[in-house]
Design goal:
Largest sheet: 7 strands, mixed
Number of domains: 2
Radius of gyration: 22 Å
Distance between the termini: 47 Å
Helix content: 25-40%
Strand content: 15-25%
Shape: globular
């Protein structure tokens, strides 16, 4: 079913909400094509965070005074809205510093569950397997390296092809009856590959394995229903979806959250403490030790409200159209290699490229000189780039405020890079 994209007049109104889009860079209007790293923030989000800081600053869940009660109400209301946005229940959503922290929390809690009197849901030890993919962001690779090192389990990796793409068949060839955890990205941050989540979840569930979803590149850009997908855990970051920095979201399916011990301990997450030990609160507070980023959570709730008002289906359709324009244009430029799914295949609204004879950082300088913000480097995915045979790529990533004109500026700039550096002569 094809959804209505964002209408031109609506896009103009959206862009007016983002102060940075009015900036000039190197004498050119800013073309911000780095939303895959960090999204810009609209005025309503900035206003919500500021208003909370100005009128509701107080310790939540701790004070008996009116201001503390008001702060707690705003904080928990924000949790309800954010949970609903991703098809979860409020008690399944806990806060982290960012998505990296959230994924580490899952790994650490699973590791701790092997050592104590906890029902781990999965036992991890020698002979057991944790599966991830060769295309993962380091945040969804290093925590699993730590987990297998701590438990004696084995890390098994789904391989990618020469374009950085893996398939369902590749994954099923790696997942077997010894698999206990399958961790993968919903959308690849380098390739734009959209993973077959439902099929992976079904395969994992059939053998009793847990699924952990890195939703950083999907939650901001497309409708997401975690209950419908059936994953056991998921993580995403506020700063990639119009929200403030300093807060990430950890989703734990209720049964898993109740079974896992906390990754970190301290104040706010206990019911009883003695000199010998402690008893934990139920989720979500169990996973929220210490003072939380309350104003930032409120800002994130404003961000998901903003996205919901525009409509995730419309945002996805808008980005799909821009992404197709991007990859189709790149495919016509001599000396440019597009990584990820081929032109015409399903992919997110981003593209990473290699320009023959020119380092990605030099490409980035040419783009910046023309007011175009794009990402250069390995995008926290060194194993993937090693498999691709390159040290770095240049990535353009779109969002709801991106325009066809900005994509065309990027394409025009890239088309002149090799000539600028004298490459290919």
């Amino acid at each position: 079913m094809q959804h209505q994209t964002i209408a031109p007049e609506a896009l103009e109104r959206i862009r007016a909400d983002f102060p940075e889009l009015a900036e000039q860079v190197q004498g050119h209007p800013l073309a911000y094509l780095d939303s895959g790293a960090t999204a810009l923030r609209p005025a309503p989000v900035l206003d919500a965070e500021r208003a909370f800081a100005e009128t509701r600053t107080a310790a939540v869940h701790r004070g008996a005074h009116t201001l503390a009660a008001l702060a707690t109400m705003a904080y928990e209301d924000a949790r309800e809205r954010i949970a609903a946005f991703v098809g979860a229940d409020a008690d399944e959503v806990s806060w982290a510093q960012n998505a990296t922290d959230a994924l580490n929390m899952v790994s650490l809690s699973l590791s701790r569950a092997q050592r104590g009197p906890h029902e781990a849901l999965v036992d991890l030890g020698p002979g057991d397997v944790v599966v991830t993919t060769e295309a993962e962001h380091h945040a969804n690779l290093l925590p699993w390296q730590d987990l297998v090192a701590a438990t004696g389990a084995t890390l098994r990796v789904v391989p990618v092809d020469d374009d950085g793409v893996w398939t369902l068949e590749d994954a099923l060839a790696v997942i077997d009856e010894r698999t206990r955890v399958v961790a993968f990205s919903h959308v690849g941050n380098v390739t734009g590959l959209v993973a077959p989540v439902a099929e992976i979840v079904a395969a994992a569930r059939a053998i009793g394995a847990l699924t952990v979803l890195d939703a950083c590149q999907s939650a901001p850009h497309m409708p997401l229903d975690l209950h419908a997908l059936g994953v056991d855990a998921a993580a995403f970051s506020s700063h990639k979806m119009l929200g403030p920095g300093g807060v990430g979201v950890l989703y734990l399916r209720r049964e898993l959250g109740l079974a896992l011990p906390p990754a970190r301990t301290g104040g706010s997450m206990i019911t009883t403490v003695t000199l010998e030990g402690a008893e934990w609160m139920p989720p979500p507070q169990r996973f929220e030790a210490g003072t939380q980023p309350v104003a930032q959570v409120v800002g994130l709730a404003a961000a998901v409200d903003y996205l919901a008002e525009v409509g995730l289906a419309s945002i996805a359709a808008h980005e799909h159209a821009l992404g197709q324009r991007l990859v189709e244009g790149l495919a016509t430029i001599e000396g440019v290699r597009l990584v990820g799914p081929p032109v015409g295949a399903e992919r997110a609204g981003l593209a990473s490229i290699v320009v023959d004879g020119v380092h990605a950082h030099d490409v980035g300088q040419v783009l910046d000189a023309q007011g175009i913000a794009a990402r250069v480097g390995h995008h926290c995915a060194q194993p993937l780039h090693r498999r691709l045979g390159v040290a770095a790529t240049t990535r353009a990533s779109t969002y709801l405020y991106s325009t066809e004109a900005e994509v065309d500026r990027f394409l025009d700039a890239v088309s002149g890079v090799r000539a600028y550096f004298g490459a290919g002569r």
